[in-house]
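subagent[fold] <- orchestrator: predict structure for attached chain, return tokens only, no commentary.
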Amino acid sequence: MPDLSDIDHADANVMLSIVMLYWSLHDRLTCEAPDLSKQERLLLIRLSEPRRMGDLARFMQALPSTMTALTDGLEAKGLVARRRDPKDRRAWLLELTETGRDTRAGLGEMIKVALREETGLCAEDLDQFSDLLLKIRSHILAKGLPKGLPL
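subagent[fold] -> orchestrator:
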């Protein structure tokens, strides 16, 4: 384990802790869902309901061609299906298949367990931490996402 005792600035320690948590969770989800890339996991999490592929590309700050490639991969795995948007036949909707819904539910459970285990927080502290993170996310979204952040 690296020695971090030389970092005597409280804010720097907080920032380093956020980075460490991010990478810890990222590594954990990569190990537990090795057949899915990070972007595929993010896309599945975003698909709580059918969404237009163009909207997903904007949300994830991805090029339409990247979204098409992601969709092709998830479609080949039987996790998503494309269908025409009945409101605009030029647009495609992306929706989860039954297998995709099961995979998404499994990802949600993995995330819940990973957050609990990687933070080491009790349920009450984790609830407080989650509330604070959602406030931070709202603030960042109000300012605008950093360019290239795939969410």
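orchestrator: received. Logging for downstream: The longest strand covers residues 88-96. The chain has six helices and three strands.
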